[in-house]
Amino acid sequence: MKKRFWMASILASVMLILAACGTSEEETSGDGDGSGKTYRVVTDANYSPFEFQDGGEIVGFDVDIVKAVAKEAGIKVKFENVGWDPLFVEIKNKTADMGMSAISINDERKATYDFSVPYFLSTNKILVPEGSDIKSAEDLKGKKVAVQTGTTGHLAVEKIVGEKNEDIRKFETTVLAIMEMKQNGAKAVVADNGVVEEYAKNNPNDKFVVVADEDAFENEYYGLMFPKDSELKDKVNEALKTIMDNGTYTEIYKKWFGIEPDIETLKEQQ
User: Fold this and answer.
1) End-to-end CA distance of the chain
2) What is the torsional sign of CA 221, 225, 230, 236?
3) Is the pLDDT confidence value at 243 over 90?
4) CA pair distance 262, 193, nearest whole angstrom
5) What is the rounded CA–CA span in Å between residue 263 and residue 12?
6) Beta partners for 171?
7) 1 near 50, Cβ under 8 Å?
8) What is the mean pLDDT of the chain?
9) Could you write out the DSSP letters of every residue in the chain?
10) Average pLDDT over residues 164-175
11) Percent of the chain having pLDDT more than 90?
């Protein structure tokens, strides 16, 4: 996702980028926890299908998950699009209560932030033009590869081709990375499987295909991110486990991805 170290026509992509430059808010609530508090959830709403803007409203898989969690936990939440780098700053400084942006859980992040139990299984994959000679991660060597800067996809490419390799083309968003490849500025894009698969499916005229390499890209797990010692984490964890057990999670997953989720693997990580 998007993961920091860290569809649709060209017009639709450009509109998505422009929309992310501003701030959009939306509020949803559960029954309330009696405190009257509304928890501020910050995101980078430029990562379809996880979070993106549609007519000024922040929508996506992650949004529906947090709405379901808020309802189950009986809390009020407000979504705000702040961008990828700022959301980490806000959570660290405790000016926001939760980060929601397809954020992978890793040891380095856990030193600074708290995370919920995993709610999504992901891996990086390679997006290439149809007919490309790139069939594995090893084939990226010697090719210009576009990535979203600071993501686990970025880090994975650095491990394959070298940290300071000038062939790595870095962009603020995955949409921009894909546009670079559309304009022949790169031979491949490496990003979360959910994002590249969604783009390839929704943009058949581009004739892009997705390449998997299980040996090069490990499984990763997304979590909702909190400031250290957050009062909210335990409530969210309970609610996440409940929506996985009662079928709500599966309904949301099928709505956005059209397939059944691997609930058991997620539960094993809890």
Assistant:
1) 20
2) negative
3) yes
4) 15
5) 33
6) 148
7) yes
8) 89
9) ---B-----HHHHHHHHHHHTS--EEEEE-S--SS--EEEEEE--EETTTEEEETTEEESHHHHHHHHHHHHHT-EEEEEE--HHHHHHHHHTTSSSEE-SSPBP-HHHHTT-EE-S--EEE-EEEEEETT-S--SGGGGTTS-EEEETTBHHHHHHHHHH-TT-TTEEEESSHHHHHHHHHTTS-SEEEEEHHHHHHHHHH-GGG-EEEE--TTTS--EEE--EE-TT-SSHHHHHHHHHHHHHSSHHHHHHHHHHSS---HHHHHHT-
10) 93
11) 77
pLDDT of 15 reads: 37
The pLDDT-based confidence of 173 (bands split at 50, 70, 90) is confident
- The predicted pLDDT at position 14 comes to 36
53 CB-contact burial (10 Å; exposed 0-12 / middle 13-18 / buried 19+): buried
Query: pLDDT (tens digit, 9 = 90+) per residue, 127-141?
Result: 999 999 999 999 999
pLDDT on residue 27: 60
Say what the pLDDT of residue 32 is: 63
Q: Which two tokens stand for residue 68?
A: 């379901």
- Nearest residue to 150 (alpha-carbon basis) of 193, 93, 87, 95: 87
**133 with 198: CB under 8 angstroms?**
no
The torsion region of residue 128 among left (phi > 0), alpha (psi -120 to 50) and beta comes to beta
pTM: 0.80
Q: What is the structure's pLDDT at 29?
A: 56
